[in-house]
Write a structure and sequence with these properties.
There is one protein chain. This protein has a seven-stranded mixed beta sheet, sandwiched between helices. The protein is 41% helix and 16% strand. It has one domain: 3-Layer(aba) Sandwich (Glycerol-3-phosphate (1)-acyltransferase), CATH 3.40.1130.
Length: 241
Protein backbone atom coordinates (compact mmCIF):
# COMPACT_ATOMS: atom_id res chain seq x y z
CA UNK A 1 0.00 0.00 0.00
CA UNK A 2 2.83 2.41 0.83
CA UNK A 3 4.36 1.72 -2.58
CA UNK A 4 1.10 2.59 -4.35
CA UNK A 5 0.64 5.77 -2.28
CA UNK A 6 4.25 6.76 -2.95
CA UNK A 7 3.77 6.34 -6.71
CA UNK A 8 0.78 8.69 -6.61
CA UNK A 9 2.71 11.21 -4.46
CA UNK A 10 5.66 11.31 -6.86
CA UNK A 11 3.48 11.50 -9.97
CA UNK A 12 1.29 14.18 -8.42
CA UNK A 13 4.26 16.25 -7.22
CA UNK A 14 5.92 16.05 -10.63
CA UNK A 15 2.71 17.09 -12.40
CA UNK A 16 2.22 20.00 -10.00
CA UNK A 17 5.79 21.13 -10.64
CA UNK A 18 5.32 20.93 -14.41
CA UNK A 19 2.11 22.98 -14.10
CA UNK A 20 3.98 25.49 -11.91
CA UNK A 21 6.68 25.86 -14.54
CA UNK A 22 4.25 26.59 -17.35
CA UNK A 23 2.28 29.05 -15.19
CA UNK A 24 5.52 30.84 -14.29
CA UNK A 25 6.68 30.80 -17.92
CA UNK A 26 3.42 32.25 -19.24
CA UNK A 27 3.27 34.93 -16.54
CA UNK A 28 6.93 35.80 -17.13
CA UNK A 29 6.16 36.46 -20.79
CA UNK A 30 2.89 38.32 -20.19
CA UNK A 31 4.14 40.43 -17.27
CA UNK A 32 7.69 41.06 -18.50
CA UNK A 33 7.32 44.88 -18.67
CA UNK A 34 5.48 45.14 -15.35
CA UNK A 35 6.82 42.53 -12.89
CA UNK A 36 10.50 43.46 -12.72
CA UNK A 37 11.00 41.91 -9.28
CA UNK A 38 9.10 38.74 -10.29
CA UNK A 39 6.77 39.07 -7.32
CA UNK A 40 3.75 37.64 -9.14
CA UNK A 41 5.65 34.65 -10.49
CA UNK A 42 7.26 34.03 -7.09
CA UNK A 43 3.81 34.02 -5.47
CA UNK A 44 2.79 31.08 -7.70
CA UNK A 45 5.10 28.93 -5.59
CA UNK A 46 2.77 29.49 -2.62
CA UNK A 47 -0.08 27.45 -4.08
CA UNK A 48 2.44 24.91 -5.37
CA UNK A 49 3.81 24.48 -1.84
CA UNK A 50 0.30 24.10 -0.42
CA UNK A 51 -0.58 21.52 -3.07
CA UNK A 52 2.59 19.42 -2.70
CA UNK A 53 2.23 19.33 1.09
CA UNK A 54 -1.49 18.61 0.89
CA UNK A 55 -0.90 15.79 -1.59
CA UNK A 56 1.42 13.89 0.74
CA UNK A 57 -0.44 12.11 3.56
CA UNK A 58 2.89 11.37 5.25
CA UNK A 59 3.73 15.07 5.70
CA UNK A 60 2.39 17.30 8.43
CA UNK A 61 3.80 20.83 8.22
CA UNK A 62 3.14 23.58 10.76
CA UNK A 63 4.21 27.20 10.45
CA UNK A 64 4.75 29.29 13.57
CA UNK A 65 5.87 32.83 14.34
CA UNK A 66 4.48 34.60 11.26
CA UNK A 67 3.68 37.53 13.56
CA UNK A 68 7.43 38.16 13.73
CA UNK A 69 7.44 39.25 10.07
CA UNK A 70 7.00 42.95 9.34
CA UNK A 71 5.75 43.07 5.75
CA UNK A 72 7.06 46.62 5.40
CA UNK A 73 10.65 45.56 6.05
CA UNK A 74 13.33 43.91 3.93
CA UNK A 75 15.33 41.11 5.53
CA UNK A 76 18.37 38.95 5.17
CA UNK A 77 16.60 35.67 5.91
CA UNK A 78 18.68 32.97 7.57
CA UNK A 79 17.43 29.37 7.70
CA UNK A 80 18.99 26.08 8.72
CA UNK A 81 19.02 23.38 6.07
CA UNK A 82 17.96 19.75 6.62
CA UNK A 83 16.51 18.49 3.35
CA UNK A 84 15.49 19.29 -0.22
CA UNK A 85 11.98 19.48 1.26
CA UNK A 86 13.05 22.77 2.85
CA UNK A 87 12.41 24.42 -0.51
CA UNK A 88 8.78 23.31 -0.34
CA UNK A 89 8.11 24.15 3.30
CA UNK A 90 9.78 27.58 3.31
CA UNK A 91 7.21 28.88 0.83
CA UNK A 92 4.71 28.40 3.68
CA UNK A 93 5.84 31.73 5.17
CA UNK A 94 4.20 33.34 2.10
CA UNK A 95 6.86 36.04 1.75
CA UNK A 96 8.69 37.59 -1.16
CA UNK A 97 12.41 36.74 -1.28
CA UNK A 98 15.22 35.59 -3.52
CA UNK A 99 16.91 32.28 -2.73
CA UNK A 100 20.67 31.91 -2.81
CA UNK A 101 20.88 28.37 -4.19
CA UNK A 102 23.61 26.21 -5.67
CA UNK A 103 23.88 26.42 -9.45
CA UNK A 104 23.22 22.69 -9.95
CA UNK A 105 19.69 23.14 -8.58
CA UNK A 106 18.86 25.49 -11.45
CA UNK A 107 19.50 22.62 -13.87
CA UNK A 108 16.83 20.38 -12.34
CA UNK A 109 13.95 20.16 -14.85
CA UNK A 110 10.94 22.37 -14.15
CA UNK A 111 11.66 23.40 -10.54
CA UNK A 112 15.18 24.58 -11.42
CA UNK A 113 13.87 26.31 -14.53
CA UNK A 114 11.34 28.12 -12.33
CA UNK A 115 14.16 29.36 -10.10
CA UNK A 116 15.87 30.80 -13.15
CA UNK A 117 12.74 32.49 -14.49
CA UNK A 118 12.00 34.08 -11.10
CA UNK A 119 15.56 35.48 -10.95
CA UNK A 120 16.79 33.71 -7.86
CA UNK A 121 20.52 33.87 -7.15
CA UNK A 122 22.72 30.99 -8.27
CA UNK A 123 25.92 30.09 -6.46
CA UNK A 124 28.74 28.01 -7.91
CA UNK A 125 30.54 26.51 -4.93
CA UNK A 126 34.31 26.87 -4.91
CA UNK A 127 34.19 29.61 -7.55
CA UNK A 128 35.48 32.82 -5.93
CA UNK A 129 34.17 34.96 -8.79
CA UNK A 130 30.71 33.42 -8.39
CA UNK A 131 30.75 34.07 -4.63
CA UNK A 132 31.62 37.74 -5.14
CA UNK A 133 28.93 38.00 -7.79
CA UNK A 134 26.17 36.48 -5.67
CA UNK A 135 26.85 38.91 -2.82
CA UNK A 136 26.73 41.81 -5.25
CA UNK A 137 23.48 40.46 -6.67
CA UNK A 138 22.09 39.99 -3.16
CA UNK A 139 23.05 43.58 -2.28
CA UNK A 140 21.26 44.82 -5.39
CA UNK A 141 18.06 42.98 -4.44
CA UNK A 142 18.17 44.25 -0.84
CA UNK A 143 18.52 47.80 -2.13
CA UNK A 144 15.42 47.20 -4.23
CA UNK A 145 13.56 46.20 -1.03
CA UNK A 146 13.60 42.50 -1.87
CA UNK A 147 14.57 40.10 0.94
CA UNK A 148 17.26 37.48 0.30
CA UNK A 149 17.28 34.00 1.84
CA UNK A 150 20.50 32.18 2.73
CA UNK A 151 21.27 28.69 4.02
CA UNK A 152 24.50 29.74 5.78
CA UNK A 153 25.55 26.16 6.60
CA UNK A 154 26.32 25.84 2.90
CA UNK A 155 24.97 22.28 2.78
CA UNK A 156 22.35 20.14 4.47
CA UNK A 157 23.02 19.10 8.07
CA UNK A 158 23.03 15.40 8.90
CA UNK A 159 21.20 15.79 12.22
CA UNK A 160 19.56 18.48 14.32
CA UNK A 161 22.96 19.87 15.29
CA UNK A 162 23.62 22.52 12.67
CA UNK A 163 26.86 22.91 10.82
CA UNK A 164 28.92 26.06 11.17
CA UNK A 165 27.48 29.22 9.64
CA UNK A 166 29.49 30.93 6.93
CA UNK A 167 30.12 34.64 7.38
CA UNK A 168 28.96 36.21 4.13
CA UNK A 169 25.26 36.71 4.87
CA UNK A 170 26.04 38.42 8.17
CA UNK A 171 28.60 40.75 6.62
CA UNK A 172 26.00 41.59 4.00
CA UNK A 173 23.27 42.33 6.57
CA UNK A 174 25.56 44.72 8.45
CA UNK A 175 26.76 46.39 5.25
CA UNK A 176 23.23 46.93 3.91
CA UNK A 177 21.80 47.73 7.37
CA UNK A 178 19.10 45.08 7.05
CA UNK A 179 17.66 43.09 9.92
CA UNK A 180 18.17 39.34 9.96
CA UNK A 181 15.06 37.15 10.07
CA UNK A 182 16.03 33.75 11.53
CA UNK A 183 13.95 30.72 10.53
CA UNK A 184 14.19 27.34 12.22
CA UNK A 185 13.26 24.31 10.11
CA UNK A 186 12.68 21.18 12.12
CA UNK A 187 11.72 17.67 11.10
CA UNK A 188 12.31 17.70 7.33
CA UNK A 189 15.34 15.39 7.37
CA UNK A 190 13.21 12.32 6.68
CA UNK A 191 10.65 14.09 4.50
CA UNK A 192 12.20 12.82 1.26
CA UNK A 193 13.20 9.13 1.36
CA UNK A 194 16.94 8.48 1.23
CA UNK A 195 18.06 5.58 -0.93
CA UNK A 196 14.46 4.74 -1.76
CA UNK A 197 11.43 6.23 -3.49
CA UNK A 198 8.91 4.93 -0.94
CA UNK A 199 7.47 7.22 1.72
CA UNK A 200 7.42 4.91 4.71
CA UNK A 201 6.74 7.01 7.79
CA UNK A 202 5.01 10.15 8.95
CA UNK A 203 7.02 13.36 9.11
CA UNK A 204 6.04 16.24 11.38
CA UNK A 205 7.84 19.37 10.19
CA UNK A 206 7.73 22.77 11.83
CA UNK A 207 8.83 26.05 10.26
CA UNK A 208 9.33 28.64 13.00
CA UNK A 209 9.92 32.30 12.19
CA UNK A 210 11.92 33.76 15.08
CA UNK A 211 12.00 37.44 16.09
CA UNK A 212 14.16 39.55 13.80
CA UNK A 213 17.67 40.50 14.87
CA UNK A 214 18.38 44.15 14.13
CA UNK A 215 21.83 45.04 12.80
CA UNK A 216 21.85 48.64 14.01
CA UNK A 217 24.84 49.10 16.29
CA UNK A 218 26.84 46.35 14.59
CA UNK A 219 30.07 47.50 12.95
CA UNK A 220 31.51 45.67 9.90
CA UNK A 221 33.94 43.79 12.13
CA UNK A 222 31.12 42.51 14.35
CA UNK A 223 29.88 39.94 11.84
CA UNK A 224 31.05 36.98 13.96
CA UNK A 225 29.10 38.27 16.96
CA UNK A 226 25.98 38.63 14.80
CA UNK A 227 26.53 35.19 13.24
CA UNK A 228 26.87 33.49 16.62
CA UNK A 229 23.80 35.26 18.01
CA UNK A 230 21.63 34.09 15.12
CA UNK A 231 23.12 30.58 15.25
CA UNK A 232 22.29 30.31 18.96
CA UNK A 233 18.69 31.44 18.43
CA UNK A 234 18.05 28.86 15.70
CA UNK A 235 19.82 26.07 17.61
CA UNK A 236 17.77 26.86 20.71
CA UNK A 237 14.58 26.57 18.66
CA UNK A 238 15.82 23.27 17.22
CA UNK A 239 16.39 21.89 20.71
CA UNK A 240 12.89 22.72 21.92
CA UNK A 241 10.61 19.71 22.36
Amino acid sequence: MKSIISIFIWIGSILLTIILFFVVLILTILLFPFDKKKKITHAQCFWWSDAVIGLNPFWQVKTKGLENIDNKKTYVIIANHQSLADIVVLYQIKQQFKWVAKASLFKVPFIGWCLGLIKHIRLTRGDFTSIKQIYQEASDWLRKDMSVLFFPEGTRSVNEQMGQFQNGAFKLAIKEKKAILPICIKGTQEAIPKGSWIFSGRVAAVVTVLPAVETEGFNPGDFAKLRDEVYSKIQLALNER
